[in-house]
Amino acid sequence: MWTKAEAVPGVALPTVGKPMETVSPSVKPSETPTPFGKVIGTEMVASNNDSMPNMSSAWSNTSERTGLWGGAAIWLTVHGNYDKGKSWGNYVSFGQLPPEIAYTNTPAGLKAAAVQIGGRALVNLYDKDVQVMKGTQHKAITVNGHPGHEIVAKVVVKVPKLPETFSTIMIAVVDRGDGTAAVSIADLAGSTPAWQNVWRYKVSQIKLSK
Prior knowledge:
Shape: globular
Largest sheet: 7 strands, antiparallel
Order of helices and strands: EEEEEEHEEEEH
Distance between the termini: 34 Å
Strand content: 35-45%
Structural class: mainly beta
């Protein structure tokens, strides 16, 4: 993912197979101003005081771009100045499922919510023409006794002078027990697969406020 300040519309993304049907950007953003979370010390803290540990001290605070409700985000540069000051890196956000996305605490409801917020995140991080490789993975997860759903997909990347061919998008939606859900979204460069398990471990350490 490119840095926000240097993002340029129209990044060339080749068509690879059929666009992933399970990720749809059909949900419109809320008209209500979205509250903001914060990075406090070693944690991303959502506006409702849910928290998720940062990936490591090497990651820095950045703006939330995935469309989460009351979210916070962190960034790690992978390719600095790969082309005239442009940087590409890894990104992780944490917050709540936006209230306008329908949600029910069932396996199907968790999956549907993950698909909806995943679609929004893909468009926000890339553009409406983003292409996803075949082989998207879904699985049920549990975080401290709370049911959840994980999606893992690969986004095709074709950017001049950038030594990356894809990024891995990882989405976790976790039921909070009150009719709402916590969400973490990771966008990790294909050349840095080790961060995938780090993200899963940090998701397992999510703390839900009461």
